[in-house]
């Protein structure tokens, strides 16, 4: 039936659709048309035991069979024939129960059901009219009514929020019986098409509302309704008059937040909002935040999340003012591509790169450059080993590494690591005089040198060890035999280079002359 034939009367709904008007006693006003009779209207609209006689008495109709066209008939809503409907779960995250039982996606939620969410859980319901309700973490809400009325367009939805928060997007409520209400222990909120949030504190019994689209009406114990348009919010406390609305904080500017992240732990930083004392940050799978995965309240303009699988997501941020009201949302799409994760680098000797095994990796790709942007590569290698010597000349470099799956897919690059390859000291020369041996080697100004003389090539059994500020050292000659010599330089910045190649110092009883070989191998 056309909306022009009906009107519904309700003090809390305030927002009329079509020609439907609002009054206080929840009555539908039906305007008669040609051919209408009270008996016909009973069959069409009324529930037992309310019959046409009651309708006649209630409206003081003289003849039940002959009514002038355009006669307004008042029909109490409680007389109407109810058509029960159900909500449906379209998204769920974490531990959510329905009347104490675990809830699943696509489950039907009838009137009378109690929903409870744990501290990190969400659930989103869609109503038959496509209105959506998201119950936030740590909340308890009861679906008191989800129903229509025979012969009438529109839907009657009533939700009781005992504690916690809900966010809702209400489809335009068309039809004389259309109504969408949220109750808290101390307030009643009614709408006919809007986007808003409601919170209820279980301890203080305070209720808060924030409107981001359309308008709502909020009434307390006195029954007096306060209009709350888009851009405003308020907190109502039991025993007090509903206060004047407060302007909501503007949306944060998050357009410069990256659109791609390559680390398992997300670090989200954004510009602060004037007068904000905290921020609510949420991550969802969809742009409308039906399927919220993570949420948190942070004291500064940054947030951290971890545990998300790779994929495309939406970020939503809003500021919270000193009263606790949450402002307008800013949303931003981003992609997480953090896997396979890069391996963790290990400290190694001069010029050798090493790393720990990485999950999912069957091989690795390395890049070496002089700059952290890796604009000009000095070396690029693929390997399935856990160490690599790129055989580079002395110098300062940056290197990074990425994991590769068996199918060849490469993960993100690691952070850049410094690679400092220092020039080895040149070969030492030997001078023997007065039972002393003098070793000298090419040096550079400002360098400090470590000298070692040992009985073994592992340099565990040292005969002499000195740190000197010049490229020469004199030590007593050892007994005839074979010994090993090496030298290491440390530059003025304190960075130690590699040990020189091992040189062999040799003398025998039969050949008392001493000799020093060329460097044979790099020292460990």
UniProtKB/TrEMBL annotation:
Domain of life: Bacteria
Keyword Amino-acid biosynthesis listed: no
InterPro entries on file: FecR, Ig-like_fold, UCP029644
Protein name per Swiss-Prot or TrEMBL: FecR protein domain-containing protein
Ranges of residues in domain FecR protein: 114-216
Keyword Signal: yes
Swiss-Prot/TrEMBL keywords: Signal
Phylogenetic placement of the source organism: Bacteria, Pseudomonadati, Pseudomonadota, Betaproteobacteria, Rhodocyclales
PROSITE patterns: PROKAR_LIPOPROTEIN
Signal peptide: 1-23
PANTHER family per the UniProt record, alphabetical: FECR PROTEIN DOMAIN-CONTAINING PROTEIN (PTHR38731:SF1), LIPL45-RELATED LIPOPROTEIN-RELATED (PTHR38731)
Pfam families linked: FecR (PF04773)
